[in-house]
Amino acid sequence: MNTSTPQQPKPPSPRKILLIGPPGSRKTTLGLQFPNVYVEDCDRNLDGPEHWLRSNGHKDLSYSYNNVRYDASSTMRDIGDCYNALCDDLTLIANSPKDFAQFQTIFVDSLSHVNEFLIRHVLKKQAKTKNPMEMEARDWSPFKSYAYILLVAKLEQTNKHIICSCHEIKLVENDPKQLMVERVIGYEPFFQGKVGDIIGAFFTDVWRLETRLAPGDKSETILQTTRHAKCEHLKNSLGLPAELVLKDGFKTLEPYLKGLFV
User: Fold this and answer.
1) CA distances from 83 to 63, 125, 144, 176, 197 (A)
2) Which residues contact 261 (CB under 8 A, 6 or more apart)?
3) Of 63, 188, 199, 251, which has the highest C-beta tally within 10 A?
4) 3-state helix, strand and coil shares in percent for the chain, rounded to the nearest 5
5) For 156, left (φ over 0), alpha (ψ -120 to 50), or beta?
6) Measuring CA to CA, which residue among 55, 45, 51 is closest to residue 23?
7) pLDDT by residue (tens digit) across 201-233?
């Protein structure tokens, strides 16, 4: 039995952080800046963020990655095989602690592609002859089980900090005061099979990123950490402000992450 006391509090557990936001909100850019990061590249979208970082004062950027879409012989995998490939690599990390000791953080980029990996994995396992590419009601239960295996068992067995990125869906409704005009009423993570409805339960923190126009025709990255009317998934276990301008990217977060990532 373990005991947490004021004199000897429980050691901090690895954090699991979900970054949600629209395309171009710099989720990948932020994920790449975490210390000693190993990227599970699921969407082959590292070139743009890496170029932006190296062109904006991060010339010493260094990270390792596994291209989930390709096998060891550089042959593109069938999408139905990518889920197992991702799980296998996470198992390798867990079972080879010395080989991966230099990595502090695992960054899965992005769960929106993993969502499709899961669908194709389920369809392949079902081996249906009628409508083989169409998910039926009975297929969503195994989908949820496989999602749980990945988001909980496989990620947590690495015993490292976890960062996952995920695109968001805008929830809109017609504006009663303006015909043919829609207004945004909320944001949801893009993850199907009802998993998106409870995805925050799999993470210690859920943060939302967006870019806004700043003075001088520049853009700034905004990090939201506390649930609000338009996004109830947000979680904040690290004492961050409800909204934070990431003027220096990850360095802006460092004061709040000391003892964990720094």
Assistant:
1) 22, 12, 13, 44, 21
2) 15, 34, 35, 104, 105, 161, 254
3) 199
4) 30, 25, 45
5) alpha
6) 45
7) 999 999 999 998 888 778 899 999 999 999 999
pLDDT, one tens digit per residue, over 153-173 is: 999 999 999 999 999 999 988
Asked whether the whole model's pTM tops 0.85, one would answer yes
Between helices 79-95 and 111-126, what is the axis angle to 10°? 110
How far is residue 31's CA from residue 104's CA, in Å, rounded to a whole number? 12
Domains in the chain, start-ordered, CATH in brackets? Answer: 16-257 (3.40.50.300)
Of 215, 238, 115, 36, give the one whose Cα is nearest residue 223.
238
CA 125 to chain centre: 25
For the chain, where are the alpha helices, taking DSSP H only? Answer: 27-31, 47-55, 79-95, 111-126, 140-148, 155-156, 250-257
pLDDT tens column, 53-106: 999 888 899 999 999 999 989 999 999 999 999 999 999 999 999 999 999 999
**Cα angle vertex 18, ends 34, 168, to 5°?**
120
Cβ-contact 232, 20 below 8 angstroms: no
3-class SS at 107?
A: strand
The rounded distance, in Å, linking the Cα atoms of 117 and 65 is 18
Locus of tokens 């996952």: 164
Question: Tokens representing 201?
Answer: 């339960």
Q: What is the spatial distance between Cα 137 and Cα 135, in angstroms, rounded to a whole number?
A: 7
Give DSSP secondary structure letters for 208-250. Answer: EEEEEEETTTEEEEEEE-S-BTTBTT-B-SS---SEEE-TTTH
